[in-house]
């Protein structure tokens, strides 16, 4: 199944269907083998990444930082302002990664809210047994932010963000990403379409290939517990 962003012309979830969507649910453009996530970079990092199909190909890529990836296209639009927000987010990349690696990554995650609780000395919900401690890592953090519509309106349900750093990020870059595509033009075309006709329907934008399909990602019971999903 081809889930290349440029070939996608399916329906994206909207605010009209928000009542049918669980409050905390992983949604992504995916098939049986891969899941697509997004991140925005400056032009140099993005160009090297696409050319060499390696996210850290540019010497400007900083190995010590935490990388935050998002499976939500509309949340990426919100975060980057459709790529117009600033120079460090002027190029949006679609990172296709192995589905199994995506799920394993999440099994290692710690919720950002629990990290904050540790910092304040609040141990509620933080204690873990030895087996769980070995499986989970502070190198992977998850936070649930309000989902956004194609017009960047805040929706009632949540969208997942995943932060990766350290050796886990290095392994993810070298082994989990199978394709990198520059989707900046798609983002800018979406913004142009909305500006040209503020009443343009979601269905029309879907037909024009500006909204990728994002469907629920099946998660294990353990993952539901770790991420406090509905």
Automatic annotation (TrEMBL):
<feature type="compositionally biased region" description="Basic and acidic residues">
    <location>
        <begin position="125"/>
        <end position="141"/>
    </location>
</feature>
<protein>
    <recommendedName>
        <fullName>ATP-dependent RNA helicase DHX8</fullName>
    </recommendedName>
</protein>
<feature type="region of interest" description="Disordered">
    <location>
        <begin position="120"/>
        <end position="141"/>
    </location>
</feature>
<dbReference type="Pfam" id="PF14124">
    <property type="entry name" value="DUF4291"/>
</dbReference>
<dbReference type="InterPro" id="IPR025633">
    <property type="entry name" value="DUF4291"/>
</dbReference>
């Amino acid at each position: 199944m081809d889930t290349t962003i440029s070939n996608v012309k399916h329906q994206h979830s909207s605010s009209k269907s928000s009542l049918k969507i669980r409050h905390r649910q992983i949604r992504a453009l995916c098939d049986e083998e891969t899941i697509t996530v997004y991140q925005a970079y400056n032009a140099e990092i993005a160009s090297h990444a696409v050319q060499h199909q390696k996210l850290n190909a540019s010497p400007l890529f900083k190995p010590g930082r935490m990388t935050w990836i998002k499976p939500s296209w509309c949340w990426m639009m919100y975060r980057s302002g459709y790529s117009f927000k600033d120079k460090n987010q002027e190029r949006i990349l679609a990172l296709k990664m192995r589905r199994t690696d995506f799920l394993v990554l999440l099994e290692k995650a710690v919720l950002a809210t629990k990290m904050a609780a540790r910092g304040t000395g609040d141990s509620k919900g933080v204690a873990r047994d030895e087996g769980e401690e070995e499986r989970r890592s502070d190198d992977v953090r998850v936070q649930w932010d309000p989902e956004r519509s194609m017009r960047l309106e805040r929706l009632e349900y949540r969208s997942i963000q995943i932060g990766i750093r350290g050796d886990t990020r290095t392994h993810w870059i070298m082994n989990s990403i199978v394709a990198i595509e520059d989707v900046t033009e798609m983002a800018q075309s979406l913004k142009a379409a909305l500006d040209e006709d503020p009443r343009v329907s979601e269905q029309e934008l879907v037909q024009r290939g500006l909204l990728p399909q994002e469907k629920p990602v099946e998660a294990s019971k353990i993952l539901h517990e770790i991420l406090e999903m509905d």
